[in-house]
Amino acid sequence: MDPLLREAAKEFMVRYGGDSFPSLFRSAKGCIVTDDTGREILDFTSGQMCATIGHNHPAIVQAVQEAGEKAYHLFSGMIPEVVAQLARTMARDWMPRGLSKSIFINTGSESNEVALRMAKMHTQGYEVLAVGGSWHGVTGAASAASFASDRKGYGVHVPGVFVMPEPNMYRPYIGGLDGEASALACLELGLKMFDMASTGRRAAIIIEPIISAGGVLVPPRSYLQALRKAADERGMLLIFDEAQTAFGRIGHRHAADFFGVTPDIMSVSKTMGGGLPLAAVSTTPKIEQDIHDKGFTFYTSHVSDPLPATVGLAVLRTIQQEGLIERARTMGAYLRQRLQELQSRYEAIGDVRGEGMLLGVELVKSRETREPYHALGAITTQRCYELGLSMNIRRRPERGSVWRIAPPLTATQGEIDRGVDILDQALRHSLDEIARNRLIAA
Ligand SMILES: Cc1ncc(COP(=O)(O)O)c(C=O)c1O
User: Which of 2, 241, 339, 434 is the most buried (most CB within 10 A)?
Assistant: First the structure.
């Protein structure tokens, strides 16, 4: 380890928010990341939810090599062969029927900029309806439609964005109703408020079909069906942001398949590049033709770059060859069962939810009151890290304290067992520590 490098990171880097670690990191392979001391840590966040086929999968390494022999980057007007190949593969094998036209860019934020610009151009409207707890990115229009992140301090957001309460099945916003009825009532109320405030220039409804950063909230199917109907009735396009849910993570090709609801525009990103910056937006030929006729542009330095496209093709091929969609279902079921075992032993685990290998574990002070247990979440996450497990905790006062657990789909049963055992040990330790501190304080 070079201690001067840790100092350099402190001295020369801008801090960009989120939790950061005391050490630096050297390498990553499969489900394991290695820090600057050589310590190995189980990665239950798949990096930034991207490494679904495992870090530095040989297919990715080979794809980078292949692109190196051909081209990493070209003039944006020169469509690389490999990009045409990726577009065809997406249309034939991956996207919902009808969403056969795709554009390839780099990040999730950017994909939602594209999606929203498409919707605005097509409808000639500008109003966007989003849900609470959403995270669509940090750039202009995407951040304006995001409500899980902190919106304060950056001046005026893009106008025309409306928010409605998210469908939270565990802590329904509307008392006296069950989760599904509350979710549908929230939608009805949200739409009423939107209709009241709308200037009539409506463009899109945007949603993560599973609201991840907002606490791994899985809406009932009826909610997404009702959203589809609401968009149609208002002449708005329905955008699914499938940054985290597409390409096998939830045990299906994407959430549109899982919920049986097809959007007009789908943005995909994180899980497509397996850790390299690749994103895409897919829509129908009809919408594509219309926006093209109206002069649609999204011309960036890295649109249609061959390097990420080569990697993306390799990722999609690997998901198919290794049966990772099926594996997300079976390993996800196993992981969920292990977490439910923990829930049966710890009162503080109020809820285990999610789909496939995208799971949420919500911590509460009491199962009856469902009061969020933020302190336990913070201490346990830290303790897990010390014991060799990296996990992500979402903590918002209004939305509870939720671990998002999403190992690579390639994680072995042994790795899952090790991760859950560490979590068990860390939880026990944290609860003992909290009890001890309470005794001392008394
Ligand atoms: C659902 C969703 N959409 C969009 C984004 C933004 O993606 P990026 O960070 O690649 O810009 C994220 C990132 O966390 C996300 O979770």
Answer: 241
